[in-house]
């Protein structure tokens, strides 16, 4: 460790400089983007009867974690470049190099701090962002109105039962313990014509079907409503058809998504796209570790040569190229063109090699 950090004071100084700039940039980005996003969404929120300032602030509390998660790697990149440009302009990097430190030793405090940021990002995404995404998605599906039963669970799921269609506003639980909320059964004849509507506020598994209550049936032809009490619908419809019909990988924690993938595989459903999302929950936070390496080109070279700005642009170009490649690979994985592991990890490994090659070529 002493070889990696010959000077504890210098290491702490560089890490503090890097962290303050990174989180300062992140705060500014999130503040501006949240304001712009709120301007576009506040009209829809307030258009719903009964909504007011409390609902606007609730939207901010759910949207802000998504923005933080998305733009934290960008902030690490910009924080790296700003830190290294400042140190280069003040000849601090020259002094460190003159003292015998290699380029990797100069960057070591930033890399170690980035590892801490990556760990914090994973925990933040797993515990906060996934829950906020699930709740915001469910809230948006009801047009910012009253939340359905069991907020944060799967919502607005449609299932076919022979000729009939069953729609549930919300689904909580898994397997035989699944509970439905806001159930509507669309009864259809052999030609697909609507003959009746059966509605009930709740439902549970009952034998090979689903018991819903208190139910009532609207007869389309007669125009009458008949109370049914408790009745069984959807015979032959299994719980996984409800609980796995709409799996949003971004709205689940790492453990929850892994369990959902296992359930889908047992049910014989395709899981390649979700496996890519699962791997990306690990590779995504680690992108912060790459940023000091990709932005390192701004640290070296003589500031008075006039090429410092060009070096900073090259560092930003490398960083943004990584984000483009990462999104492209993930999209290809969702389409099935790339294997899930390759879609999540190939950009990280590729730009790790590129960053090392640039650093070794220019400084080592």
UniProtKB/TrEMBL annotation:
A GO BP entry: lipopolysaccharide transport
Keyword check for rRNA-binding: no
Keyword entries, A-Z: Cell membrane, Membrane, Transmembrane, Transmembrane helix
Membrane topology type: Multi-pass membrane protein
Compartment(s): Cell membrane
Keyword check for Membrane: yes
Major site of localization recorded for this protein: membrane
Residue intervals passing through the bilayer: 12-33, 67-86, 106-124, 308-325, 337-360
One GO CC term, this protein: ATP-binding cassette (ABC) transporter complex
Highest rank taxon of the organism: Bacteria
NCBIfam families: LptG_lptG
Protein name as it appears in the record: Permease
Organism this protein belongs to: Sphingomonas endophytica
